[in-house]
Amino acid sequence: MMLSSFFVLMAVAWPAVLACQQHVQRDAASLARRTIVKEPESVILKNVRVFDGIARLPPSTVYLSSGLIVPFLSPHANATVIDGAGQDLTLLPGFFDAHAHPETTADLLSFARNGVTTVMDMACSTRAECLALVREHADDGLPSVFVSGATATVPGSANANLPGFPANETIATGTREEIDSWVQSQLDKGASYIKLIQDRPGQLQLSPEEVQTLVNASASRGLQTNCHVAAYDSVGIAVEAGVSMVHHLPFDKSIDADLAHSAKRAGTISVPTLTMMRAFGAILAPGMYDIALESVRTLREADVPILAGTDANAVNKLGIPIATLPPPISFGPSLHDELANLVEAGLTPLEALRSATVLPSLHFGLTPDRGAVLPGLRADLVLVEGDPTKDISVTRNIRKVWIGGVEVV
Ligand SMILES: *[C@@H]1O[C@H](CO)[C@@H](O)[C@H](O)[C@H]1NC(C)=O
Ligand SMILES: *[C@@H]1O[C@H](CO)[C@@H](O)[C@H](O)[C@H]1NC(C)=O
Ligand SMILES: *[C@@H]1O[C@H](CO)[C@@H](O)[C@H](O)[C@H]1NC(C)=O
């Protein structure tokens, strides 16, 4: 396939955004009807190995009460006791998916059953569909969802032409005033951060100056910026502008040491979404995935923080002919694929686990309440059989999941 048509395909397929429209009404209604079905339990986990977000601890006891991890529970407390003695169990913080496009409650349930307890939505084109899924402090056993609002792009871009993209949500003139009010409108609608697109220099998209203005307008409101990138030069533009995170990786050539060091100096975080890169590679050219793996190796050597994100989507619900799209990426199981892909790219299993727990919590500013196994934090936890700090594949062996102390599996 020619490179130019490839990039058009990229631009059409990636921001899986778009999918939501027809599901919005139904989903909002079903969430409104949802009532709390379970109370957070008091639980004592004994003799379980713990990955606390940073390191592997010897078998310990962990107490859950009122939705939190607590320092202690009286032996007389009416608590469920789970004794891992002789069972080879590991307790971990609930996983983050740092790049996903959930649309429905069913998607959230699928995340929950697979141990994903916090989901960062990375593009939702209208207000209703995003807010319908926001579950920041839910106590009904569904994952927390944070949203970006609309994607920053220009009229007529491949993104703006996607079905369901609201015409009035594009950035038309690129003036400081327009960009400023666009960012404010995303914030007013409940965006936790901003999403923007840099596919390939030369495409119809925000100019490097407009990207810089957008980053400044976001930063002045305390909003992080998340930039979709598809080419080496796009990463350069994003890093130069000081975006908080670059999502995906270049397909044309690997990030080299120079660019990785620039990213490190700029404080840019990488969300490689290797699962999606792999799915595209399988369809278009396997070499693309090798280029992506090489980028991750280089970013890691430059000590750029790497977060686990999948691009989980249901993009085929869009009505775009399936032949032009990658396979939809599952909500939940794909996070375990991503962990394995990160290890394939050279992360140690411990580093891969951090990329889905303490690091996304830190870099999305959620450390005060989640991402580690520590008294005082939310009881968002996963209990697996085996030792994932040695063998990453065992994160799939899920025995139990708690979200806010509510047992979901
Ligand atoms: C103890 O907890 C169980 C399950 O949570 C509940 O069914 C039972 O009524 C509780 N007993 C007491 C004495 O609170
Ligand atoms: C676009 O229109 C929708 C629906 O009227 C409105 O909620 C939204 O705020 C508008 N967006 C902008 C950026 O003005
Ligand atoms: C963005 O902010 C930086 C640092 O405050 C400043 O140097 C730069 O001129 C600003 N650029 C734009 C386009 O607003």
TrEMBL record:
Cite the SUPFAM superfamilies for this sequence. Composite domain of metallo-dependent hydrolases (SSF51338), Metallo-dependent hydrolases (SSF51556)
Keyword Signal present in the record's keywords: the answer is yes
Signal peptide positions (record): 1-19
- Keyword flag Nucleus: no
Pfam name, any one: Amidohydro_1
The entry's keywords? Signal
User: What molecular function terms (GO) are annotated for this protein?
Assistant: hydrolase activity, acting on carbon-nitrogen (but not peptide) bonds
> Where is the Amidohydrolase-related domain positioned along the sequence?
91-408
Entry superkingdom = Eukaryota
This one is known as Amidohydrolase-related domain-containing protein
Please tell me the species this chain comes from. Exidia glandulosa HHB12029
The top of its lineage is:
Eukaryota, Fungi, Dikarya, Basidiomycota, Agaricomycotina
